[in-house]
Amino acid sequence: MKIAFTGKGGVGKTTLASLFIGVLAKDGQEVLAVDCDPDSNLGRVLGFKEHEKIIPIARMDKLINERMGVEAGNKSFFKLNPKIDDIPDKFSQTKGNIKLIVMGAVKEGGSGCMCPENTFIKNLIEHLILQRDEHVVMDMEAGVEHFGRGTAQSCDFVLVVVEPSLNSIESAKKISGFARDIGIKKIYCIGNKIRSQKDKSFINKRLNNIKLIETIDFDQHFLDWDKKKDFLIPSERISKRLEKVKQFLERELS
Ligand SMILES: Nc1ncnc2c1ncn2[C@@H]1O[C@H](COP(=O)(O)OP(=O)(O)OP(=O)(O)O)[C@@H](O)[C@H]1O
Ligand SMILES: [Mg+2]
């Protein structure tokens, strides 16, 4: 399955994406973890060694210019279908059956900019989603801007992480609207940092037509872990909830 974790800033996209990657990988299945947040930290949360040394693809100017056919710095002309199929294996880090690719931020241009860098990244993500056999889990940039670049367009599911706050719910509605506009049909919410039944109904009442498929409890351990920076291990209760998310998505796909 190919999934994008989205949502407002700080709601827990990276945390839940990494725990979900763990759930998928647990059964020995191959998972491609794709960090699409310019402020990348999925590698750290997944416990990849020397994650800070990973050079994001978007910063590989020489590679991008070469593959896009950009000559003498003239970015007005470039290929629309660059060779891309060797990139995932060449430029990913591996930990067990998880591969990590860090996309990084494109330096120039607005959200819809069709510069060589954006086109390259968009092609690469599309390749990962459409051509690779592994599960693909993308940790997206907060908000809706990435939808303008069409980076999540072909995925099976958009999972919007919400916390019990009006801002995060409003953001989820916007994201869901953008996702529908670009043709994604399966958009679901996961409630995070839930402290009570009240929190759960607060979210449920306000989501309108977006289905809340699961809720994840607030867990102080996550915050404590964030200070230590070592590998995040979820409680059994949270693992079970994420296992249920996996089963739900599998049913939806079949
Ligand atoms: N269920 C939870 N209980 C308690 N703390 C949590 C929970 N989920 C995430 N957190 C904490 O919330 C903070 C933000 O989480 P995270 O970085 O995953 O959010 P994000 O949506 O990826 O943020 P950004 O928009 O900056 O990428 C972190 O300190 C994380 O440990
Ligand atoms: Mg994040």
Brief overview, please?
The chain is an alpha/beta fold and 254 residues long. The protein has helices at residues 13-26, 42-45, 61-68, 87-90, 116-131, 145-149, 166-181, 197-206, 220-228, 236-253; strands at residues 2-7, 31-35, 93-95, 98-102, 135-139, 157-162, 187-194, 211-217. It has one domain (2-253): Rossmann fold (3-Layer(aba) Sandwich).
Describe the protein's topology.
Blueprint: E1 2-7, H1 13-26, E2 31-35, H2 42-45, H3 61-68, H4 87-90, E3 93-95, E4 98-102, H5 116-131, E5 135-139, H6 145-149, E6 157-162, H7 166-181, E7 187-194, H8 197-206, E8 211-217, H9 220-228, H10 236-253
Parallel strand pairs: 1-5, 1-6, 2-4, 2-5, 6-7, 7-8
Antiparallel strand pairs: 3-4
Helix pairs in contact: 1-10
The chain binds adenosine-5'-triphosphate and magnesium ion (MG).
Q: Would you give an account of this structure?
A:
The chain has 254 residues and is an alpha/beta fold. The protein has one domain: Rossmann fold (3-Layer(aba) Sandwich). It has helices spanning 13-26, 42-45, 61-68, 87-90, 116-131, 145-149, 166-181, 197-206, 220-228, 236-253, and strands at 2-7, 31-35, 93-95, 98-102, 135-139, 157-162, 187-194, 211-217. The protein has an eight-stranded mixed sheet with strand order 3-4-2-5-1-6-7-8, sandwiched between helices. The chain binds adenosine-5'-triphosphate and magnesium ion (MG). Magnesium ion is lined by residues 13-14, 37, 41, 139.
